[in-house]
Amino acid sequence: xxxxxxxxxxxxxxxxxxxxxxxxxxxxxxxxxxxxxxxxxxxxxxxxxxxxxxxxxxxxxxxxxxxxxxxxxxxxxxxxxxxxxxxxxxxxxxxxxxxxxxxxxxxxxxxxxxxxxxxxxxxxxxxxxxxxxxxxxxxxxxxxxxxxxxxxxxxxxxxxxxxxxxxxxxxxxxxxxxxxxxxxxxxxxxxxxxxxxxxxxxxxxxxxxxxxxxxxxxxxxxxxxxxxxxxxxxxxxxxxxxxxxxxxxxxxxxxxxxxxxxxxxxxxxxxxxxxxxxxxxxxxxxxxxxxxxxxxxxxxxxxxxxxxxxxxxxxxxxxxxxxxxxxxxxxxxxxxxxxxxxxxxxxxxxxxxxxxxxxxxxxxxxxxxxxxxxxxxxxxxxxxxxxxxxxxxxxxxxxxxxxxxxxxxxxxxxxxxxxxxx
Length: 422
Known about the structure:
Elements: H1 8-11, E1 16-19, E2 24-29, E3 36-42, E4 45-51, H2 53-59, H3 61-67, H4 74-80, E5 89-92, H5 98-108, H6 121-134, H7 137-151, H8 161-171, H9 174-187, E6 189-190, E7 196-197, H10 216-244, H11 257-273, H12 288-298, H13 302-308, E8 336-337, E9 344-345, H14 371-383, H15 399-409
Parallel strand pairs: 2-4, 3-5
Antiparallel strand pairs: 1-2, 3-4, 6-7, 8-9
């Protein structure tokens, strides 16, 4: 655990620091008459927070389950059996960050003068961990708007999308949750060992592990959306290769078989060069965004003019083979008398048996190769990725929150008139 120290701004005038040669103790009385003391050991010493259990239970379903009147946990039983004039009940929260919990408890106990006006991203992240652990997003909502505004985070997904996805989940920020999840769908990689990696947009490979606090249900949906999009991209490439691989059909607008053969060869080699064809198993560990860049690289529309703008096609057969004179080796390109043996000869193609017709350049085949069409189809697949919806994962733990959600969905926005007389 990192070294921590409680700042004077957090401790306030009610704090007292007890220093010994063995251990340092920081005591904060959020409620001087509080019935519970949270004990938080850390590398610098021990923080002791005296709090009002009723206030904390009111704003945290998790703490209510731990210490509430109807709870059967040991903490609740010990609190109920506590002597009213006796010392507060001590509860250890060994895994929690004392600085982050101190800020949250200030908000809960309405000590607004001691609540930071702004928080850095790292400090807000520590608050999010406890907010998620104890389900306290409603208690912090007023200050969350200010802290996020200070950081400039409103709608767009920041660089560390996995970290902010967790914070959006913990703080109930639907728009940010959707944008961060979309970014993760595009940029998440899978390590060979099977673990998940955070995005590295420049290279398409991983730098660090995915944030450990993201709920498993959210991670599963991110992976499912990513997998589906990759499979659709691969299927799109394979469909076009199969289309031009069918010898019974001619796709070329000029009905030239050589055009289709050239298109088939180009698509096959192009998609094979990036691992999309014939098998795409090597792509499955890459990020979706990197795969899309690889595909875009071989679907450069300008290549169609380079390879297909002046495609010379023979009139009799795609690859004609001419008959030579029966008495000599001269290949005749037109009807007439052989200049060597003076025999009348009419050249025919050995393959198709038709009269030979010289190749022409009358047709521009640059419009035949479907690079632009394939790219539009690939873009459509990626553009369908909209991100996950926060409402699919939200926790409604309080009757008040459920009632408020129902009231807003019904169009009753005037919360001044929230009283219901029956």
